[in-house]
Amino acid sequence: MKQKVIAKQPNSKMCYVCGLKNPKGLQASFYELENGEVVGQFCPGEDYQGYPDRLHGCIAAGLLDEAIGRAIRTHYSEEAMGQTVELHLRYRAPVPLNQPLRIVARVTRDIRRIFEGTAELKLPDGTVAVEASGKYFSLIGDTLHKEELEAQEWRVYPAEDDPQELEI
């Protein structure tokens, strides 16, 4: 099902998952959808291989963790983020390299300072390859200072290929 993209989420300078200047990072992009979910996009190359022609499990875990941690932004403000308290994973299918992946995440329970969420890593055909659920500490408002975020170049970087809709 296609959903309208309502906002692109920020990237940073050096974050392993979203850092645009991290030469060893994933440089993944994340978008907020009209249904309140967050979708990430990533196409893994050979640098992220585990077994031959398969994505390493820790990379899948990192993408899912990042997406759930970002999902809280759809509930509050641009300053909201999540810090992982616990993360549970279920690997259902191998994840091939050199194919575009989607990571779909949402908040399932929110009690302001702690929230829970779930996410799926999906293959191009829609197959759910990895599932995650987790608990996160909410970093909202005064926990992260604007100066720190600015120093890390935490901002939205528009791109010509940013989607208007995404399949979830």
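^ that was protein a. below is b, sequence first then the tokens
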Amino acid sequence: MDLNFCLEVKGDYACFTRPEMKVERVSYDFITPSAARSVFDSILWKPEIRWEVERIEVLAPVRWISVRRNEVGAVISTRNLQTAMTAGHGQLGLYVEDERQQRAGLFLRDVAYRLHARLVSVKGEALHNPAKYAEMFTRRASKGQCVNQPYLGCREFDARFRLVTTPHGEPEPCADVDGDFGWMLYDLDYSRPADPRPMFFRAKVVRGVLDLSGVEVRR
């Protein structure tokens, strides 16, 4: 059974944050492989399988929007929380008016992508019966079912998805998105769960297509 799947993903806004931007959010020009993987995970996630994104097609021109919004610049103290749990009472309130910070963000708007990924069996029953999981994904994706709402970089930017069964019959990618877009976040390396490390790759797009097969990843 074919274990390669394709999803069309669209959204009004998106933000795939560049890690080098420390305070204000600035998005990459298009979806990162890790964000694409999370869309597949949101539809079907099991510990015995994983998704490998092999190809990203940009279907719409890159459009930007600058937004200034209020954010909370603090979190509740862990020490105060532990003290309150021990004593049975305590002050755990966080007053938004005192911690409010206004920050600007450079986001994407009116985005559309076609994501190609392969289902890989890693342990358990999936090694002997991968077709079972492939059928589960096909059934769920065709009905629009998901474990959690897929999003485009930030949870407030929800994504609409559609299972593509015949990618060759779909519209061509946006040829205007072309060239070397520099270093981009690929994913996190969880070989050491206590200390996950980011992995980067050189994002080279050819007429709207980012081919991830055989990509060189650096840590």
